[in-house]
Amino acid sequence: MIEIKNLNFSYKKTPVFSDINLSFPQGNIYGLLGENGVGKTTLLKLICGLQRPNVGTCTVDGLTCHDRLPEMLQRIVFMPDEVTLPDNATPQKYVDELTPFYPTFAQGTFLHLMQELEVEPDRKFREMSFGQQKKSLIAASLSLGTDYILLDEPTNGLDIPSKAQFRSILSKIADEGKTIIISTHQVKDVENLIDPIVILSHDAVLLDASVQRITEKLYFEYGGAERADALYSELLPGGYMNVIPNETGEESQLNIEALFNAVLRNKERINELFK
Known about the structure:
It is built from 10 helices and 13 strands. By secondary structure, the protein is of the alpha/beta class.
């Protein structure tokens, strides 16, 4: 389990987090959402030990993240949004450099993922598009066999078929009991994949809930008129989409973009509903 307790972090004099508490039990695909600059990438770096909290703790299976002990690092992989790859290297050479640090790496899995993502493992990175490089990194990260997988904007640069391939691959890996945290602005790309959903601000966790709990507390109404009691309304073809408190217990289809806007605009009300 990943546990974050009373965490404070700042870049020099710029505060990023203030007294944040979060836990990520194993076996889920978490969606990590928040406005630009709120610190989603920073949180992933804190979890993998690339940053150190000013106050508080961040642990993986009880091991302090910023100590970066080998037994912790072997359990976790972080795929940043942008990586500078050596021009003359190939995906195969790239993973060959990583394998000494990850005894659970599976070469067969890597080759299978590269084939599924339609990228040649022995083609040089300089000959690839950005999307092909991104798919190579996805295949490498998911074949290391770690228990925890941190993905920062993983669908950036992917075309529509590749996004579908990515979702399919991640669903299969989640079934193996892996813990995956996806930080993204492209919520439509992962809308049917992420559960639970975590929404951050600088000074608070605005929401940390499963999809089931969200739809128990909120009702997503489609095709009606704009409602005065809506936490968020948006005009769509066919009528308004309203997010309202679910006072009748009816089931509805979650819309993550609408949820995000409702949470940001009604922080106190959301806090009351999800206490």
